[in-house]
Amino acid sequence: MATSSSNTKPVGLVLAGGHSRRYGSDKALARVVNDQPNVLLAVQRLLPHCQRVVVSVNNHNQAAVRACLGTLENVSLVTDSPTFADQGPLSGILAASLTMAGPTSLVVTAVDYPSLPQAGLTALVTHQPIYLQDPNRAHFTLAHLLIDPLVVTNWVRHHSRHRLQDFLRAQGCQPLVIDQPLTNLNYEVSQ
Q1: pLDDT, tens digit, for every residue of 47-85?
Q2: Which of 10, 56, 64, 184 has its Cα between 20 and 30 A from that of 75?
Q3: Pairing relation of β-strands 52-57 and 75-79?
């Protein structure tokens, strides 16, 4: 595991294209912290650390996400490639990678973490290839790695199970353990 030392900032990716079945409503649009949509929180968190942020959305939430993000600069939206639609987080990584000209440092986060602590964010953007792990579990949708569009495309084509953890490990990602527990928002929070 290395500390990111490149003078070039990474590209950020916000995974916001899931169906949120366990949560019960669209997590990207949910307002859990400061009455702001989770997708906006995630983008605002990454922008200072990234040259640009790509938001992976689905066909159902694309217009609403675009409206939430307004006129933020250096932010673009992508949807899953029709060939690999609805394959989970890896579909979003593939869609984002297809916007890149070659190998690119990519910081991945999901809208599932509206309360990502500063220590977690700092660890995420300053080390690669990693995924975050807290004292309780691995958080594969919080990762930083070098991706290449051809590598991602070939991996997805040649593996029948599109598990993000398998892809990250195949790319050499190691867990970076942080002391603070991370909260993944998989179920709607009672207010």
Answers
A1: 999 999 999 999 999 999 999 999 999 999 999 888 888
A2: 184
A3: parallel
Give the Å distances, CA to CA, from 39 to 15, 30, 63, 172. 9, 8, 13, 28
Closest residue by Cα to residue 137 from 191, 170, 67, 186: 186
pLDDT band at 18 (very low <50, low <70, confident <90, very high): confident
At residue 120, what is the residue type?
G
Tokens for 77? 């939206």
Cβ-based burial of 2 (10 A; exposed 0-12, middle 13-18, buried ≥19): exposed
Question: Which segments of the chain are extended strands (E)?
Answer: 2-3, 11-15, 31-33, 36-37, 52-57, 75-79, 104-110, 127-128, 130-133, 138-147, 174-177
Determine if the pTM surpasses 0.85. Answer: yes
pLDDT in tens, 155-173: 999 998 889 999 999 999 9
Tell me if residue 110 falls in helix, strand or coil.
strand
- Provide the CB-side half-sphere exposure for 119 (13 A, CA): 9
- CA-CA distance, 6 to 22, in Å (whole number)? 38
